[in-house]
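Worked Example 4.2. Consider the chain below.
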Amino acid sequence: MSLYYQEHGDKNAPLIVFLHGGGVSSWMWDKQVQYFKHKHCVTIDLPEQGKSRQSELFSIKSSALKIIELIENIGKGKEITVIGFSLGAQVAIQILSLKPQLVDNAMINSALVIPSPLLKKWIKPTIKLTSPLIKNHSFSKLQAKTLYITQEYFETYYKESTAMPTETLIRILEENMSFDLPKSFREAKASILVTVGSKEKAVMIKSAKKIVANHPNGKGIILPNIGHGVSFVKPDFFNQLIESWLTKDSLPQDVQTI
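Applying the procedure from the previous section yields the following structure tokens:
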């Protein structure tokens, strides 16, 4: 079954594909598709999430294969950029690894690439125990706050969170915790920018450094005073970061390079 996707902007322009994080869907990119009206923007709901809820079971690899097929259909002859956040960034890495010649530019935001087998063991019992809390409005507000999800999007976030079956959430988290950099990642021809927030967990910063170290065209930056969710907390900054990187290959001066 195909994934739900939407096309925005100028269909004759270079292609930008946006891949959302876990627990949200394509709506997380609203501020980006509004800004990049001069580009051909595509937002995709990953399997079992958003409006792809009825698609096949989620895995990072199967998601990547589906998205490769879509990009090949709509991106022929175009410059292709893929931008992924968190879970979507892991999918982006898998795309680059499976089809090294497909993508011209890739922005990898907050991707975990250091597997956590011990934590993975605890996912199922922990989620089974805490799943009733997800339907609690107050608890969901606290969760949304950690992701920088504003009131504007909270009800959408809450609706999707409560609609997600427990087994789906477990599957997504297990995929996320198990992901490692594929060996073929270093063969990708793309220009790659890796970003991570300075307030993210240490394992996320270590992951960003690992990605940069394993690609000859990789650059990395640590964004000051930001946790997990730069596109939510500073959408204008994030949009300008993308545009400057794509058009001038320039990066903000107040960031720490990796």
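The beta strands are 5-9, 15-19, 40-44, 80-85, 105-109, 191-197, 218-223, 256-257. Residues 49 and 193 are 26 Å apart (CA to CA). Compare this with Example 4.1 before moving on.
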